[in-house]
TrEMBL record:
Keywords from the UniProt entry: Cytochrome c-type biogenesis, Disulfide bond, Redox-active center, Signal
PANTHER family cross-referenced by the UniProt entry: THIOL:DISULFIDE INTERCHANGE PROTEIN DSBE (PTHR42852:SF6)
Protein name, as recorded: TlpA family protein disulfide reductase
CDD domains: TlpA_like_family
Species whose genome carries this gene: Flavobacterium myungsuense
Transmembrane residue ranges: none
Length: 167
């Protein structure tokens, strides 16, 4: 009897973990309405950012200049950009200040369009995107559908394969 209880518990744990990491195909209304900051310091709704790139494949990277894993992954994202120049790359920073964010862009020579997320991972935008780790990558196809909702720095094979399939 104890074995059955343990097995049931294990199944419950796995199913709850897999549900929390479920693949989403669209952003929640809450996420789309959230305001982020442009490099010019202007607030803009996430939906308006996405609308600027309608009809394009998009890779979103959520990162921070203080994040060791983010910095370690920079060469891989630059390699992605070189092998997939037709893709739009958007970088959303979780830095603590706008000055540190801008210094990080310059220091690491990150090419793409940049946005700042106020209140970091635990703010309303971070919660709306289910942020639990950075760097975090999201891939959106030309129709606006989310193809990969949660990839991290160890998932570059998945990211590469996905981008090739979207060409």
């Amino acid at each position: 009897m104890k074995v059955k209880v343990i097995i049931a518990y294990i199944i419950l744990c796995f199913s709850s973990i897999s549900c929390s990491q479920a693949q989403k195909t669209e952003f929640s209304r809450k996420a789309l309405e959230e305001k982020i900051i442009t490099v010019d310091g202007n607030p803009i709704a996430f939906q308006d950012v996405l609308n600027q790139y309608k009809g394009k494949t998009i890779v979103i990277e959520i990162w921070a200049s203080w994040c060791g894993d983010c910095i370690k992954a920079m060469p891989k994202i630059k390699e992605l950009q070189n092998t997939n120049p037709e893709v739009t790359y958007l970088f959303f920073s979780l830095d603590k200040t706008i000055d540190k964010w801008k210094a990080g862009i310059e220091k690491h020579q990150i090419n793409g369009d940049h946005y700042f997320i106020k209140n970091g991972m635990n703010g309303s935008f971070g919660k709306a995107l289910d942020l639990d780790w950075i760097p975090r990558y999201i891939i959106i196809d030309k129709t606006g559908k989310i193809i990969v909702y949660r990839a991290i720095e160890t998932d570059f094979e998945l990211i590469n394969t996905t981008l090739k399939s979207l060409k």
